[in-house]
């Protein structure tokens, strides 16, 4: 029985891997776009759970104005990701934005950590998850010369 399952898996595995290889980048591109459009749209609408964190981080700007600018910026990243010819612009905007998303770790460590440097608060986890967005941006950006 176990041998039959192994054999079936070994026959199926190349097909699954090929399907993932064929569709993975597109899924990554569109899910990344959804994240940026969704999270970005929340900011100017005044319903982002990250609003206070952003305002407290960029205290040298008017927080409400900055949230609108940041939200539009993020929506643009998402929209540009959906349009393959705009991938370079999306990746540029993404990589210009990402260092700013890490600022609270430095400027507001008491908000980001329960026990520095490992114990993260929910806000800290929200920030650290941006590492996957950076990696996804690198992968999607790596496709710009394939056309």
Explain how this protein is built.
It contains seven helices and two strands; from the N terminus they run αααααββαα. The protein has 147 residues and is mainly alpha-helical. It has one domain (26-141). The protein has a two-stranded antiparallel ribbon. Strand 1 and strand 2 (119-120) form a beta hairpin. Helix 2 crosses helix 3 (63-82) and helix 2 crosses helix 4 (87-107). It is globular. The model has no long low-confidence stretch (mean pLDDT 95).
Q: Report the strand count.
A: 2
Largest sheet: 2 strands, antiparallel
The helicity comes to over 70%
What is the gyration radius calculated from CA atoms? 19 Å
- Number of continuous helical runs: 7
Numbering strands along the chain, what is their spatial order in the largest sheet? Answer: 1-2
Order of helical and strand elements: HHHHHEEHH
Shape: globular
What percentage of the residues does DSSP assign to strands (E)?
under 5%
| Mean pLDDT over the full residue set | 95
Structural class: mainly alpha
Distance between the termini: 46 Å
């Amino acid at each position: 029985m176990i041998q039959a399952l192994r054999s079936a898996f070994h026959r199926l595995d190349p097909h699954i891997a090929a399907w993932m290889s064929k569709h993975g980048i597109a899924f990554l591109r569109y899910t990344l776009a959804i994240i940026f459009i969704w999270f970005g749209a929340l900011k100017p609408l005044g319903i982002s759970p990250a609003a206070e964190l952003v305002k407290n981080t960029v205290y040298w700007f008017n927080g409400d104005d900055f949230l609108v600018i940041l939200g539009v910026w993020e929506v643009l990243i998402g929209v540009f990701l959906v349009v393959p010819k705009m991938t370079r612009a999306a990746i540029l905007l993404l990589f210009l934005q990402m260092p700013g998303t890490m600022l609270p770790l430095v400027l507001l460590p008491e908000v980001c950590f329960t026990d520095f440097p490992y114990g993260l608060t929910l806000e800290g986890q929200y920030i650290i998850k941006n590492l996957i967005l950076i990696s996804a941006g690198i992968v999607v950006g790596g496709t710009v010369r394939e056309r």
